[in-house]
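Re: that chain you flagged

S.,

Sorry for the slow reply, it's been a week of failed gels. I finally had a moment to sit down with the sequence you sent. For the record, here it is as I used it:
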Amino acid sequence: MIKNRKSLSEVVRFGENTLRSKKGGEVRVSTSSWAKNMFEDDEEIEGSVESFISKGRGKTNCDTVNCTWIKLPNNSGPLSDIHTFIGGTNNEFIIIPQCERMDYEYVLEKITSFSE
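Prediction finished late last night. Pasting the structure tokens below so you have them in one place:
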């Protein structure tokens, strides 16, 4: 998802994320507020992440993604903003407990499509 962060900026607001190099080094980046997208108007963060990913030549992993799926004005997304944590063991993601079934299915479909 982090590699596609620019195309996802309308539907996902990124919070704290952990990137891991092919040699095991780790970089953690985060935003100052949950209401703000980490990569929006922060050239230093954007440049750091872009450099880390490009130098990894496709071997950089994103171990954790802490993000919010944004309620869209045209009702094509979730019914409300959905905070999601993706990480831990393989195939693990955590979603807020007050989530409607339709929102859960929306997030699951999106995560699955980015994993292909």
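What I noticed first: The first strand starts at residue 12 and ends at 20.

Talk soon,
D.
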